[in-house]
Amino acid sequence: MAPYSATETHNNRVTADSWIAFTPHRRRVTAILEKLGSNSQSAQRRLCVVGAGNLNDVELSQLQRIYAHIELIDIDLAALERGLRRQMVAPDSPSITLRGVDVLGLSDGMSDDDVLDALASGKAVAAISSSVGRYCDVVAGTALISQLAIAVKKLVLASLTRPGGVVAHVSDLARRSDARGREIYSEAEIVESHMKTGASGDFFAGTNPAMLLQVGLGGVLTDGSFWMDGGQPLFWVWCITSTEQQHLDDGCLVAYALTWRVTRQPVDPRLLGETPMHSHNDRDEL
Ligand SMILES: C[S@@+](CC[C@H](N)C(=O)[O-])C[C@H]1O[C@@H](n2cnc3c(N)ncnc32)[C@H](O)[C@@H]1O
């Protein structure tokens, strides 16, 4: 298998020109982050976007109106730089910081057992916090590393959030062959085929929202809920074509967002014991 970071950078190169395909998705994600920011009481609001990649998911000029500072974090610094160029934001813009870091503090040579040890010992959490240095009011994982198990994903995001701040997890849920021409799905349609609480259900590995909502990291995260629209969880549609994203077939994806409030820091890594942290199958998915 290719080293971990090489796989990520390859995937990001493939999606580098997918800006247009991402438009409906980017519009939704940006609107959610704008709303979360405007709800924050902080005088100098800070946003962290983890797994920001090519920045296809976020419209920086709109977010800069709400947030005094934006941290864009990804293992693939070149993708972040490409994303900034596309959005015509100067790399030395004082309100934006690019961080080319592995949020797990891991290295390519590590085995899965090493990964588990790093998480259990707290080294990974320390690496995440020290790499960014400051907590954010809103921390968003945009399709963050679907090969990571649920508790790890939530731990990464919570570790960067100030107490009282908000974690947002945005993700694709599943591919739907009947989605073209639609903008949203109702909750009833999604529950029917995708939202089972067990391991079954038709969703991408590690993205089942029902399972994500179940993991509370021992009370570190509270008030978990779907992003709502008109009183209903919002499941929106965005479509890709094989010319825009060569490694994928044409198809439409259903996406959603979850949010939690963070009660305290630091996250105790022993809480990760509540659910498996890493799975070969999940990682092999990529
Ligand atoms: C599904 S992609 C998201 C792509 C991104 N939203 C975009 O617009 O291109 C997941 C992202 O997570 C990043 N990533 C994966 N593992 C990471 C890690 N351990 N630390 C930091 N970033 C990571 C990848 O480099 C990739 O950019």
Helical run tally = 10
List the quaternary state of the chains.
single chain
**What is the total tally of β strands?**
11
Task: Enumerate the distinct ligands.
Answer: S-adenosylmethionine
User: Number of domains in the coordinates?
Assistant: 1
CATH topology: Rossmann fold
Overall radius of gyration = 18 Å
Structural class: alpha/beta
Mean pLDDT across residues: 80
Gross geometry: globular
Low-confidence stretches: 270-286
Looking at CATH, the homologous superfamily is Vaccinia Virus protein VP39
List strands and helices in order, with pairings.
Layout: H1 4-14, H2 23-39, E1 46-50, H3 60-64, E2 69-74, H4 77-86, E3 96-100, H5 112-121, H6 123-132, E4 136-142, H7 150-159, E5 161-176, E6 184-185, H8 187-193, H9 209-214, E7 221-226, E8 228-229, E9 232-233, E10 235-240, E11 251-262, H10 280-284
Parallel strand pairs: 1-2, 1-4, 2-3, 4-5
Antiparallel strand pairs: 5-11, 6-10, 7-11, 8-9, 10-11
Residues 8, 12, 15, 51, 53-57, 74-76, 79, 102-104, 142-145 line the site of S-adenosylmethionine.
In short:
By secondary structure, the protein is α/β, with parallel strands linked by helices. The protein is 32% helix and 24% strand. The strands form two sheets. Strands 1, 2, 3, 4, 5, 6, 7, 10 and 11 form a nine-stranded mixed β-sheet that branches.
